[in-house]
Please model this.
Amino acid sequence: MDSYPQHKSPMKITSVNRRRGAASSKASLGFIIASFVIALSIFAITSATRSTSSNLDEFTTDKKLAVADTKPEEMEPVIQQVFETDAVVKVQVPKVPDMEVDTTQMSETDAGMEIDVENLVESTEAFVPDELISIEEESDVLGVTPLTAVPHYIRKIACVDKDQTSVIRAFQLRGFIVHEVSHATSLDKIAVVEKCYNRGGFALLWTHQNINPFAWAKLRPYIRYNHVPEAYYMNSKVHLLEKLRASSNDKGEFIGFVPKSFILPNDRVALGEHLKPGKDSGLDEPWVVKLPNCEGGKGISMFGQNSTAIKILFKLVNMDISTDQMMLNVRHRLIYDQNLKELQVEEKKNQTTDLQQKQARNKFAALQKQTEQAKSSVIVQQYVCDELDYEGRKFDIRIYYLIASARPPIVLYHHGFLRVNPNKYNAHDFNSTKDHLTNLGAFEQDARNIVSFDDWKIPLKKFVEDNPNDFTQDIRDDPLEHIEKQFMNAIASVVASQHDIAFRGYGVEDDVTKMENGFALMGGDFIIDRHLNAWLTEVQEGPGLLHESPWKENFNDELLPSVIEIVEEVTEKQTAGEPVSTIENQGDFRLVYNDEFQYRYSFPRSNKKVLC
Model:
């Protein structure tokens, strides 16, 4: 059933008040002196404006201040717009005789695998090529303190990576002018912001890769960027597992949507105990061994139960060797060797050209070098057996969730699609890791690799009807809704465990960025077993939005304009000082988390152990 617990997180809006005093006149001497005081007030306004303008040098030079006309007798606030700096100056004219100016700144195969455990790798040279930000709560109501307004003349201007064609089209569908800039590669993560500024002002920035921290510091308060400052914590497989564990222990909850996992080297002893021979030994289970920071099916190996590789793993974690030596051999023997063998098989099978083979080898070598330099940890995760297939092929499900606002946190779920392996699936054959992968970057693209939820509904419904004793009536009525509720529950739990650290850093003058808020479109990957249990395998920052098929293009054309519309709504509400806890134009998105709500879904999850 669904439940709705409440909790609160504090919120801060950065503001700076400067006050300038002015001498008071003495007792009134009649009409002449009163007129003199009014004239003096007007002079003070002009002086304060000039003084404030001189304090804005950190933003730009050659500033022009447009001052609104104000009648002295009305004594109303005057708001000027500094166009070059996108800053706003507010000048308050008080009643005489006291005058005060208040200015507010806006601104594996295991087959044939022969490993000599005693012949351990001694060094990488053998195989590697040449406490939270202080947050001050200013209000008990979400979003009531206005944020910096976007200058009207750039409100509908976005700066986007030129290779993000689907994103560019989405902005155009929403009526935006788009500045296209070169892709923010690892060598261009600072320059991309400068390129955007050189093209003119902009309100929204969208890049595939996260920009450099120095570039974050260049973003102005009103800009909204499609990454969160501490995105590493959202994207790291290790951190994801660690935070879910901590959250589970703190709340006394059972995190049932993640397969049994061990993180080496920290879980060395626990893994050794689990793999001990005997009843319920982990040796009798298949395992996935993967590097935590790799994507596209790289840095991952899969081994069957009682395989040579799993026995090697058991010996390595129990041997009397140093942690560094143990980790070095786990990465080398269980991942690199496995990946290299499969690369050689693919070269023979696909008859690739010499150039393609060289490129693949270079990528493989770069992966080894990067991993060893970082002394990467390794995740050992239980393989999900008894998986549901699609027409005899293995699949996983990519869903999306939108961090519509980081301050305050507002997160919404959006349905996705099936990613289907093109080869026939044999759950008992682990001779090829690639046959167990569903990541679209791991094999040749074609239309049959993606299946919509609408196309999946009919075979899913038939599967449930063919096995009526395995499911309750509500699941039989709508099996897809049952699965999507599990997705929503999992994403809400992930956000609840991480947002305190992953969303921090906004609106800070001396740290990270002056931006007052931001957003991010994230991806989540799930596997479904034959009991319709959903298993989270990873979350991803900046999920791929390329057009692998006409269907994917249409899907992006529905998803992305809705994302932009929601971000616009949040920005407009926060600028006006309105609450943002409720999104009015959320389209197909569904709320799963904010400061006052966390989506929960519970059901009698099957924990029956099934061997592959």
In short: The chain has four domains: 2-8+231-253+387-601, 17-104, 152-219, 260-382. The chain has a mean pLDDT of 76. The longest strand covers residues 410-424. The CA atoms of residues 398 and 525 lie 5 Å apart.
